[in-house]
Amino acid sequence: MQAILVLNSKGGSGKTTLTTNLASYFANEGYKTAIMDYDPQGSSLQWLKVRSKELPLIHGANASPNKKIGHLRAIAMAIPP
Whole-prediction pTM value? Predict the structure, then answer.
């Protein structure tokens, strides 16, 4: 399994646009694809809801610290600067 992390602390830098475009590309190429959205706005998950059901499947998961994943309340990440 490979993972691609799109990360930038600045808002409006194109993270969601890049993420949804990468997910679309890999899904169309036949890869099993998922988006974990850590943004409280959840824009990529909203995009998945309106995306045509006729296109290849992309799974979505809300990883926002405001949501629970199983019994976890938050996810902590150590990202070097």
Answer: 0.75
